[in-house]
Amino acid sequence: MFWKFCVLPAMLVGCFAVGLPGGSNAQETQGAKVEKRPNILLMLCDDIRFNALGCMGHPHLKTPNIDRLASEGVLFENVFCTTSLCSPSRASILSGLYAHTHGVTNNFTEFPDSMGTFPIQLQKVGYETAYIGKYHMGENNDEPRPGFDHFVTHKGQGQYFDTEFNVDGQGGKVVPGYYTTVVTDMAEEWIQDRSGDKPWMMMIGQKAPHSFYFPEPKYEHAFDDVEIDYPHSAFDLSDKPEWIRQRLNTWHGIYGPLFDWRKDFPDTSAAAVLDFQAMVRAYMGTILSVDDSMGRLVQLLAERGELENTIVIFMGDNGLLEGEHGMVDKRTMHEPSIRIPLVMRYPGMSGGSAKRVKQQVLTVDIAPTLCELAGAEPLPKIHGRSLVQLVADKDPAWRTSWFYHYNYEKQFPYTPNVRGVRTDRWKLIRYPHGDGQADRHMGELYDLANDPDELHNLFGAPEQQERIAELSNELLELMAATGISEDTMPLDEGIKGELPDASIR
């Protein structure tokens, strides 16, 4: 159901006349007096695939509330995380920095209290700020963090049902109910308590659709009639690095336990695809509740008369492999792992109509964008760029390449060290050993224009060796531009078969 909301369409048309920052409803970003700063509502999903929305062409998922944001705002079609892992990516969203600079390179490291973030910058210009939901930087820390006046989170991953939340550091207390509904209730309550005298910024950290996947009861059987098979790419690994084949039977492979959806593993039988099907159906079911959540919040903003002066953002922290090349989870540099959805609705940014942006956008671009739109001082020496001029078609020098990096984890020994570069057409992936020697695994090279599903690895093709050399140099140049003079990383100890500790899954 859509927000009842087809909120006064005639009025919406008129409201789109609001201009970009510096216009009648925004502000100059370099010290000028502000008339009225926009509110900000940012909903962050965990492990949502780039195409897990109706507006991104999913064949089965219907997300009318998020789709409406896209139809009235900006849909960014090619958005990527710079490290496909929850904590590093969330830190990049907050700070505008790559993981090697902000220091959160795994899921067990605290975000430094001294590190600048866009919420801190917003507080400096009078914003009331809140974070509600999954924060996930510091596995056992649910205490308030800098930059937020109101802070509600939990330790670890949280549960789909009856999570123990810590509200403003007052101690953990179980809140009965389905996670997505609970955090939406909390968000509505906080917004309703705002007087309107100050601008506000709220981030909502949804648990969904992170494993283990448990849909809300009303959506448990929403996809029972949808047939799900392993992707064809799972059965053609002949030109892929050996580590991908070694991963097949592990925690992150299609023949492994599938986040507990398969009890007996490894299972390579034809019948085992039913476990995979059940997992994917449940994953999709959790997203339906997220769409409901967005609908409720947008309806509330409309009822309060705040919708047209609120930047509404829906995005993911990282992507997810759903059987592609025989893999589940994320961490790798393959497209489903690194691509994320991003929708932004704000009349002051959209220029008066819905837009689709095809250029490559990164998680590190969120912080500078929100600082600019809010009229806050920019964060110094960051790696991201504001999207404001890009959306206005006034940034012809937008990036055409960027680099990706991920460090091997002993706790999840199923993915090597990864360093790679993605241009508008080409992707080169390398797997450093970690001790300065030659790469531990064969690399990967894909022509994304002709092979968007990365089915044909061109790394060994004689005619591509000059291109590989050029891209390797570009990778080093991009890394150096972000301050990497010596690339330190853990030693790649190889793909292993043991399951991760139950407490960190």
TrEMBL record:
<dbReference type="GO" id="GO:0004065">
    <property type="term" value="F:arylsulfatase activity"/>
</dbReference>
<keyword id="KW-0378">Hydrolase</keyword>
<comment type="similarity">
    <text>Belongs to the sulfatase family.</text>
</comment>
<keyword id="KW-0732">Signal</keyword>
<dbReference type="InterPro" id="IPR024607">
    <property type="entry name" value="Sulfatase_CS"/>
</dbReference>
<dbReference type="InterPro" id="IPR000917">
    <property type="entry name" value="Sulfatase_N"/>
</dbReference>
<feature type="signal peptide">
    <location>
        <begin position="1"/>
        <end position="26"/>
    </location>
</feature>
<dbReference type="Pfam" id="PF00884">
    <property type="entry name" value="Sulfatase"/>
</dbReference>
<protein>
    <submittedName>
        <fullName>Arylsulfatase</fullName>
        <ecNumber>3.1.6.1</ecNumber>
    </submittedName>
</protein>
<feature type="domain" description="Sulfatase N-terminal">
    <location>
        <begin position="38"/>
        <end position="376"/>
    </location>
</feature>
<keyword id="KW-0325">Glycoprotein</keyword>
<dbReference type="InterPro" id="IPR017850">
    <property type="entry name" value="Alkaline_phosphatase_core_sf"/>
</dbReference>
